[in-house]
From TrEMBL, chain A:
Pfam family, one: RNase_P_Rpp14
Species of provenance: Collichthys lucidus (Big head croaker)
Keyword Nucleus: yes
Listed transmembrane segments: none
Protein name: Ribonuclease P/MRP protein subunit POP5
Residue ranges, compositional bias (Acidic residues): 154-169
Keyword tRNA processing: yes
Subcellular location(s) per record: Nucleus, Nucleolus
Family: Belongs to the eukaryotic/archaeal RNase P protein component 2 family.
Region feature (Disordered): 146-169
UniProtKB/TrEMBL annotation, chain B:
Source organism of the structure: Collichthys lucidus (Big head croaker)
Signal peptide positions on this chain: none
Residues covered by the POP1 C-terminal domain: 735-919
Polar residues: bias regions: 16-32, 812-821
UniProt subcellular location: Nucleus
Positions with biased composition (Basic residues): 1-14, 136-155, 782-796
GO CC term (a single one): nucleolar ribonuclease P complex
Protein name, per record: Ribonucleases P/MRP protein subunit POP1
Alphabetized Pfam families for the sequence: POP1_C, POP1_N, POPLD
InterPro entries with a match to the protein in the record: Pop1, POP1_C, Pop1_N, POPLD_dom
Keyword field: Nucleus, tRNA processing
Length: 169, 919
């Protein structure tokens, strides 16, 4: 079977003020990316963006974005991402930058990576806590993250499989 | 995306996370910290939805002003949860094998679940059971049917046939027809419409040079019995002398000729016609006093003999067979339950009405060679010398053989029949001749191969020349018209004692020399028949007696026995379609089509309209003909009533103009008559059938040959002027007249084409060059298009429809309309109300003035039109308003009188046509 192949970028939107993050929505992010690509790569880049580029997922609380890019031109488009300095959302400019955490051949690998990453972040947050109330909350969150049924191993196995597939591509 | 696809996608994406964001519409007017329970929610319930979500993927929480580390942590945790569900749950839900990596999948896993890894086995087992159940369910849904062999077994087959003809009756030749024809369900019968093979021209050739066969057994047949004078007195109420010879015509009364009349409701002559009827008087036998008459109304025409105080003669197929239908072949009318009365008796006059529909089989042979086909197929019955005459027999023929008188009669009939063979063409005989005969079973002489029956010239020389001349001039002598088909007992006897095909074939196979004729012919095979000559074209001046033929009347049950031998004589078989073409070429009005004032005609028009409308609506609007643009108000029906009313109004208008100029006496007369017309209640439109008036009208329209090259001579006709026209219109102002239009140049008229009046410029054009094709109608504007569009848009935004341009704007620029349009003035208002049932390309219901809608004034419409193979040009039959026609004639110059315009509903091109009224 032939399929349209694409690359999924797992990016994090970094903002100086976290509350501004909540203004974001998927369309604003998409527009910002498009704008940046058009600025850096001109009409050619804009045309590449027009098909196969979407924002698959956006979490306004954590600032996690899944971008889908066509595999043929993802390097070119990716190269424009560092030039995003602000995102215009709801009439306000949210100054930010995008940092890419992971590049995956399927959205599944990105999701898997995100799980790992989030866990890691939560663990990192734990020592930085200022008051016990917060600590309590974070501990609960970490507990929530643990996989029910404990089939984490299988998950990791699949992880490996997918990685292999990616290499084959 | 279709609904199923959406569902599939929804199922697939059910576990995928949705974006977590705040709705774009809500302002940032603050709130408190996000509730961690709440933030988790969208992941659980949302499911993946394609595209940008306006409400932020179901996450309807007001945006907080600040966030804390705790809430951020819980958001992270929620995201992890969402991703976990997305990753752990397999997306391809339908197959467990999707969960396995490719290199571990095996084909045999689908039926042997033990091949699967253990963790997937349970799911796979469940799925497998499910699919098995679904498969078995589908099988169960199929109806339990017997095997084909069982179904085709004779008894079961007959049961099935009887079941299938419960609603629509079958003729005896149904199966033969069903194999070869497109069948239609009409009038409660299954009838063949047209053959599946190409034969239009071949059938026409057969009609004009050889023979075309049709099964007309579906004709209603009613027998009236009573004393002659009483019968005539009753029947005279139903007819009028003005329409031609009635029931009392001397020739038909003697039983020698068949007659035809148009019936009206008792005593209602000019209005309320019922339909055409052909009738046959039973010849008087000295012994039998009561005379009989067989009426053959065309199908569907209901006969209400109010004169005889018998009501409810209308036959209904009420298939109330409560009992299980017997496994017996139905002969005649199977739906008629034995308790239903088929006979009515009038108490005051003693007239008995018998319904003989489907008791007689009626075949029609059309064409000049139909007599030779008959002569080759049928042979006069051989008498039975060998049988001991003293013995009484259950069969009717041996009994008849004993009677010397009857045998004499039979001999004479056989002689006449023999002379008949020598005739050159069927049309030579006097129209409507009747011949009674008894014939042998035609299956005995069935040829092994299909042969074409040809006239036997040799025999013609043998036959006495004088006798043949006498037959051609006088017709069949009176006593020879007697047939035993009239007698119920003989009919029943013949039907009951028919030898089956199987038996006959066995007898044939037992003949010593294979292939030789069976002799003696079994005694059962003597059938009384009645041959009725059908006149050919009687009107007009050319192709006279075209399409003449014979009607063959048989007792029921013998249909197929006669049909196949006839077919083996090389005749063509025609269906309903050919009947229409036959009458069209013959210049005879065809029953339901050309009787718009009869109840059956009205019903036919309604059916036709709904049928055509359905067909029209099936097309996508962009591919439909826009009849509004073509200026065609009613493409699927002909509003005769409106046409007649409008022309009545126009003539009255014209009259009032003339009366002002005329002297006072004249004026008084006029006004008095106008008063009468005003006070007269709204009369219905009628078709002019008064022969005198028709002849007058025919003379006025300058009859010519079909293509209009040559004038035909007509008798003395009073010159047409205004006074003659007004006096003529005094009685016929609301009438329509049936006309034949032949196109002067090319063009093929279709049904519902408009008949219009040419303007003076058009006639100039015609005079200049006869090859000119005709004027053009300027395209009309479709004002309803915008309204339909607006209506569609109106669903989105409920704006009040703006005022439309007046619909009669396209009529304001017409040159020829000086007449007031009473209907147009109220049109815009009423049509705006009826926006609900607007159909693209059709005028909504309250039509504007039909006469003056186009640039040429409309006179009437065409009911049938085609390229006529007999005339070699396009010919149309239709109705025009008498008032309009006379008005046109008066205004037209003498050399162009009778030239009209014809325009198809799908075209803007007018064609010149010559009008002919044939009496």
């Amino acid at each position: 079977m032939v399929r349209v192949k694409s690359r999924y970028l797992l990016c994090e939107v970094n903002v100086p003020d976290r509350s501004r993050l909540l203004l974001l929505d998927d369309r604003a992010v998409a527009a910002a990316v498009r704008e940046a690509v058009a600025r850096i790569h001109g009409d050619y880049g804009a045309a590449l963006c027009s098909s196969g580029f979407t924002v698959k997922y956006l979490n306004a609380h954590t600032g996690i974005v899944f971008l889908r890019l066509p595999k043929r031109s993802y390097r070119l488009l990716w190269s424009a991402l560092p030039f995003i300095s602000s995102i215009e959302a709801r009439g306000q400019k949210v100054s930010c930058f995008l940092s890419c955490l992971h590049v995956g051949g399927t959205i599944r690998t990105c999701q898997k990576f995100l799980i790992q990453y989030n866990k890691q972040q939560l663990h990192r947050m734990l020592p930085k806590c200022k008051n016990p109330e917060e600590e309590q909350k974070i501990r609960r969150a970490i507990l929530n993250c643990s996989v029910p049924g404990g089939n984490m191993e299988g998950l990791e196995d699949e992880d490996d499989d997918d990685d292999e597939e990616e290499e084959e591509e | 995306m279709s609904a199923a696809k959406v569902k599939m996608r929804g199922k697939k994406m059910r576990n995928q996370p949705v974006s977590v964001q705040y709705p774009s519409s809500s302002a940032q007017n603050g709130g408190d910290t996000p509730n961690p329970e709440r933030t988790k929610n969208p992941h659980q319930r949302g499911g993946w939805v394609r595209g940008h979500q306006k409400d932020g993927g179901g996450y309807t929480k007001e945006m907080p002003k600040h966030i804390t580390a705790g809430s951020f942590a819980s958001a992270r945790a929620a995201e992890v949860q969402a991703m976990l569900t997305a990753v752990t749950k397999t997306t391809g839900s339908c197959h467990v094998y999707g969960a396995l990596p490719k290199h571990m999948r095996r084909r045999s896993m689908s039926h042997n679940t033990k091949r699967l890894p253990r963790r997937l086995r349970d799911v796979a087992n469940r799925m497998r059971e499910k699919s098995l159940q679904a498969g078995s369910k589908k099988k169960k849904e199929q109806p339990k049917s017997k095997s084909r062999k069982a179904r085709r077994r004779h008894g079961n087959l007959l049961l099935e046939f009887n079941r299938r003809q419960r609603k629509n009756m079958w003729l005896e030749t149904h199966i033969w027809h069903a194999k070869r024809f497109h069948m239609v369900k009409k009038w409660g019968y299954c009838l063949g419409d047209r053959p599946t093979y190409k034969c239009y021209r071949a059938c026409y050739r057969a009609m004009s040079s050889h023979c075309l066969l049709q099964d007309l057994s579906y004709y209603c047949c009613i027998e009236l019995q009573g004393e002659e004078d009483k019968l005539l007195a009753c029947l005279s109420l139903l007819t009028s002398k003005e329409t031609g010879p009635t029931f009392a015509a001397a020739l038909s009364l003697s039983g020698r000729r068949q007659g035809s009349v148009v019936l009206y409701r008792a005593g209602q002559y000019p209005s309320q016609p019922l339909g055409p009827v052909t009738f046959l008087w039973r010849p008087l036998v000295p012994v039998v006093i009561p005379a009989g008459v067989v009426l053959t109304p065309e199908p569907e025409s209901e006969k209400t003999p109010e004169a005889q105080q018998v009501t409810g003669t209308k036959r209904k197929h009420s298939g109330k067979d409560a009992s299980v239908p017997p496994a017996k072949k139905i002969l005649g009318d199977g739906t008629r339950s034995p308790t239903t009365a088929v006979t009515w008796k009038s108490s005051s006059t003693g007239i008995v009405i018998n319904d003989l529909t489907l008791e007689l089989v009626r075949y029609r042979l059309i064409g000049p060679q139909s007599h030779s086909v008959l002569a080759e197929t049928l042979e006069a019955a051989t008498d039975c010398h060998e049988i001991d005459k003293s013995q009484s027999s259950p069969l009717w023929w041996p009994e008849h053989c004993k009677d010397e008188n009857k045998m004499n009669l039979h001999q004479q009939q056989a002689d006449v029949y023999h002379i008949l063979k020598g005739i050159y063409s069927t049309g030579e005989l006097p129209p409507g001749t009747v011949l009674g005969l008894t014939v042998d079973d035609p299956r005995v002489t069935l040829p092994t191969k299909k042969v074409k029956a040809l006239p036997c010239v040799k025999q013609a020389q043998e036959v006495d020349e004088e006798k043949r001349k006498e037959l051609m001039l006088q017709g069949v002598p009176e006593h020879c018209c007697q047939s035993y088909l009239w007698e119920q007992s003989v009919r029943d006897n013949v039907t009951d004692n028919k030898i089956s095909e199987q038996q006959l074939n066995r007898m044939k196979s037992e003949v010593l020399v294979p292939g030789s004729r069976l002799s003696p012919i079994p005694l059962q095979g003597r059938v009384p028949i009645l041959l009725v000559h059908q006149p050919g074209k009687q009107v007009g001046h050319e192709m006279s007696s075209w399409g003449a033929g014979w009607d063959l009347l048989l007792p029921k049950g013998w249909g197929m026995a006669f049909w196949v031998p006839l077919v083996y004589r090389g005749v063509r078989i025609g269906g309903l379609n050919m009947t229409l073409k036959h009458s069209q070429n013959k210049g005879v009005s065809h029953f339901p089509h050309d009787y718009p004032d009869c109840p059956a005609g009205v019903r036919f028009q309604e059916e036709q309209e709904s049928e055509l409308l359905d067909k029209f609506k099936r097309r996508p609007p962009a591919k439909r003909t826009n009849y509004i643009k073509h200026g065609c108000l009613a493409p699927f029906r002909c509003p005769w009533q409106q046409l007649a009313e409008e022309w009545e109004l126009i003539t009255r208008e014209a009259e009032s103009q003339t009366t002002t100029e005329a002297d006072t006496v004249m004026e008084e007369k006029m006004t008095s008559r106008r008063d009468i017309t005003v006070t007269k209640p709204q009369s219905h439109v009628t078709v002019l059938r008064n022969r005198k008036s028709l002849r007058l009208l025919s003379g006025w329209c300058k009859p010519t040959t079909s293509k209009g090259q040559r004038r035909c001579r007509v008798g003395e006709v009073p010159p047409l002027d205004r006074s003659a026209a007004t006096s003529f219109l005094a009685t016929h102002v609301m009438s329509l007249v049936w006309v034949r239009l032949s196109l002067l140049s090319k063009g093929k008229p279709e049904f519902h084409a408009m008949v219009c009046v040419p303007t003076a410029e058009d006639l100039q054009l015609l005079k200049k060059g006869s090859s000119s094709t005709g004027p053009q109608e300027p395209p009309h504007k479709d004002h309803f298009k915008s309204r339909i569009k607006r209506k569609k848009k109106g669903n989105k935004k409920t704006s009040t429809p703006a005022l439309l341009p007046k619909t009669d704007s396209n009529e304001s620029d017409l040159p020829s309309t000086s007449e007031p349009n009473p209907t147009t003035s109220k049109d815009p208002k009423s049509s705006s109300q009826s926006t609900s049932d607007l159909i693209f390309g059709l005028w909504p219901d309250p039509l504007p003035s039909v006469t003056s809608h186009c640039s040429r004034v409309t006179l009437g419409w065409v009911t049938q039109g085609d390229f006529s193979l007999s005339a070699g040009c396009g010919e149309a039959l239709g109705f025009v308003s008498v008032a309009g026609l006379l008005n046109t004639f008066v205004n037209q110059p003498m050399e162009h009188r009778g030239t009209l315009l014809l325009r198809n509903p799908t075209s803007l091109h007018y064609r010149f046509a010559k009008i002919n009224i044939e009496v």
